[in-house]
Structure formats: structure tokens, C-alpha cells
Amino acid sequence: MVFHLILGCLAGFLAGKVMRGEGYGFIVDILLGLAGGWVGSWVLGLLGLHIPVWSYFITAFLGAVLLVWIVRLVKGD
């Protein structure tokens, strides 16, 4: 569990930097990474791709990028 929290935090931080340039702030970036892990796993599962636990960071990063993209579409940024 702690492993997923740490990787989720890092993935959210990185996704915030990649998608926005400066991120959304420490707390929101962490939440995006954590939610991104769940969303990324869900989307990849729908596609029939099952990612091993050791690649959770990649899954969380991709999910966080997807969430940031959706937030930007909704906000009109």
C-alpha cells in the first residue's frame, strides 16, 4: 500500500509537470497520481492489457495524464 502511495505521488507530480508545465499543486498532483493509478488500471483492463504490479508507476502516470487532459478539457484551459 505504501509502495502504491509513493509511486502514485511521483506519477501525479510528473503528470502535472508534463501536462501543465507547473502542476496543480502538491496535494492535487498527489491525488491525480493516486486516482491515475486506478483509472489507468481500469482503462488498460478494458483494453485487455494486464500490467504487472512492478509497472504501477507507468500505469499511474498514464492515468494521471488522462485525468489532467480531461480536467483541462472541462476547464477550457
Structure description:
There is one protein chain. The chain has one domain (about 1-75). It has 3 helices and no strands. The protein has helices at about 1-20, 25-45, 55-75.
Short description:
The protein has helices spanning 2-20, 26-46, 56-75. 78% of the residues lie in helices and 0% in strands. It is built from three helices and no strands.
Low-confidence parts: none
> What is the domain total for the residues?
1
Distance, first to last CA? 34 Å
SS class: mainly alpha
Nearest-integer average pLDDT: 76
> What form results from the Cα inertia axes?
globular
Largest sheet: none
Radius of gyration: 12 Å
Layout of helices and strands, plus pairs?
Layout: H1 2-20, H2 26-46, H3 56-75
Helix pairs in contact: 1-2, 1-3, 2-3
Which key terms come to mind for this protein?
0% strand, 78% helix, 77 residues, 3 helices, mainly alpha
